[in-house]
Amino acid sequence: MKVKLFFLIILFSNLYIANAKTINFIENDHYSKSKILGYQPNVEVHYFFSFQCPACAKSSKTMHEYLDRIELNYKVMRHPLVMNQTTMQLTRAYFAMDADRNNPGIIEAFYDLARLKELTDERLIAVIQKKGDNIFAKRWENFSQEKAASFAKLTAELAKQYQINFIPICFVLGPKGGFMVYPSKHLPAEEMAACIDHVILLQTTV
């Protein structure tokens, strides 16, 4: 099953690079208020990305390590978006790995595999096993194509609900409403995590 989504990925191919230490995060420059997402009592972080997105790849190590850290205190949801058969395979693998999918080495391998013109199941399984997951073949078998397609459909519906038209993008929901953090000419992809920290602090400060 293919879920067709079109993103303005090329928009982020030449991001402005800034020194993180000099960034003072400002609303409407580095992050913005969502007009469609309402208030909720507890902070939630939703991260939308794709394994074939250049900007997602550029920020992947920082973002996934950051999300691992903050999900000790907040609800964190990661939403890999399916754009073609290769991203369908990688999304299936991502969810099949369960908690171990957050291994930075494996995540980086996913972005490398996404650049291939054709990705076979056998090659995907071999690469992940080589990265240290010796039982991945069984995980892959137990997490069916149909189940992966169902996950992909739910993610696509959520992306439509949030009115997403580019990635990567992170939504920080909480008592002060919904905020969006995404790369722009003011915010390099590598600084998304620091900006999300700023928005979480905004959400949790009385």
Q: What does it look like?
A:
This protein is an alpha+beta fold. The chain has one domain: Glutaredoxin (3-Layer(aba) Sandwich). Strands 1-5-4-2-3 form a five-stranded mixed beta sheet, sandwiched between helices. Strand 2, helix 1 and strand 3 form a beta-alpha-beta unit. Helix 2 crosses helix 6. The chain starts with 30 loop residues before the first strand and ends with a helix. The N terminus is likely disordered.
Strand order within the widest beta sheet: 1-5-4-2-3
Under the CATH scheme, which class? Alpha Beta
Average pLDDT value? 86
Structural class estimated from helices and strands? alpha+beta
Strand content: 5-15%
The low-confidence runs, each spanning 5 or more residues with pLDDT under 50, are 1-21
Broad shape: elongated
Q: Order of helices and strands, N to C?
A: EEHEHHHHHEEH
What is the β-strand count?
5
CATH topology: Glutaredoxin
Number of helices: 7
Compute the separation of the termini in Å: 46 Å
Overall domain count: 1
Alpha carbon gyration radius: 17 Å
* CATH superfamily label: Glutaredoxin
How would the blueprint of this fold be written?
Blueprint: E1 31-33, E2 44-49, H1 54-70, E3 75-80, H2 85-96, H3 104-113, H4 121-130, H5 136-142, H6 145-161, E4 169-174, E5 177-181, H7 192-204
Parallel strand pairs: 2-3
Antiparallel strand pairs: 1-5, 2-4, 4-5
Helix pairs in contact: 1-3, 2-6
